[in-house]
């Protein structure tokens, strides 16, 4: 092999190594940047993404998302709160019901709270929420979650046909460089995976997920 051939081979090998790293870096930068955008325009509703309920109470991560949503409601930036999240094995309540109870306890009227009760992941959170948006003729929505979750979540919401915009939780429980970097790289994997699967996913809402904001018998 000539020197020129070796040089071309090295360049090709270098490109094969650097290209995936560049893609990962671009995804990470986009996730970080998008997570620090806050849409200040009013919306019809906020969709609060579930994050576990423990013994009928919102987990610390979920609680901060709910607090942020309640603050949006109190400020008049949204008129309705849509809670998402199904019932985990061994838990007495669906995540959405636990979240709705917390919001009602903190002053949100029960008439302004809506729930879906069948989801266990972000995409299905949003498929259930999309069914509520459709059934209630809701327009613009804010998606409430931790900042680094929002690039993936808002992309999913828009793919489902929602007029969705980010509203990051300012008091996210993911603090410190270690927690944030772990969350970021987890989102790089999950967002990248979603983009690869995107052409093959069902973009329809899930009306069977809609349930009352109270325990189901």
UniProtKB/TrEMBL annotation:
The signal peptide, as residue positions, is none
Keywords on this record?
A: Membrane, Transmembrane, Transmembrane helix
Q: Tell me the ranges covered by the DUF218 domain, including all copies.
A: 44-176
This entry carries the following GO cellular component terms, namely: plasma membrane
InterPro entries assigned to the protein according to its UniProt record, in alphabetical order:
Cell_Envelope_Assoc (IPR051599), DUF218 (IPR003848), Rossmann-like_a/b/a_fold (IPR014729)
Q: Which residues cross the membrane?
A: 12-34
| Cross-referenced Pfam families | DUF218
What's the name of the protein?
Answer: Uncharacterized SAM-binding protein YcdF (DUF218 family)
Species lineage, top-down?
A: Bacteria, Pseudomonadati, Pseudomonadota, Gammaproteobacteria, Chromatiales
């Amino acid at each position: 092999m000539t020197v020129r051939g070796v040089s071309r081979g090295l360049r090709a090998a270098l490109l094969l190594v650097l290209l995936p790293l560049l893609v990962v870096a671009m995804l990470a930068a986009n996730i970080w940047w998008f997570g620090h955008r806050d849409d200040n325009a009013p919306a019809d509703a906020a969709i609060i993404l579930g994050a576990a309920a423990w013994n009928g109470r919102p987990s610390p991560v979920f609680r901060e998302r709910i607090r942020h949503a309640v603050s949006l409601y109190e400020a008049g930036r949204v008129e309705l709160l849509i809670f998402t999240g199904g019932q985990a094995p061994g838990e007495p309540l669906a995540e959405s019901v636990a979240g709705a109870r917390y919001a009602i306890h903190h002053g949100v009227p029960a008439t302004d709270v809506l729930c879906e009760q069948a989801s266990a992941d972000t995409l299905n959170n949003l498929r259930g929420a999309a069914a509520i948006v459709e059934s209630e003729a809701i327009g613009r929505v804010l998606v409430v979650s931790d900042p680094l979750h929002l690039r993936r979540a808002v992309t999913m919401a828009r793919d489902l046909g929602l007029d969705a915009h980010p509203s990051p939780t300012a008091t996210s429980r993911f603090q410190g460089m270690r927690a944030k970097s772990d969350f970021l790289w987890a989102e790089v994997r999950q967002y990248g995976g979603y983009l690869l699967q995107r052409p093959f996913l069902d973009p329809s809402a899930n009306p069977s997920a809609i349930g009352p904001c109270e325990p189901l018998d």
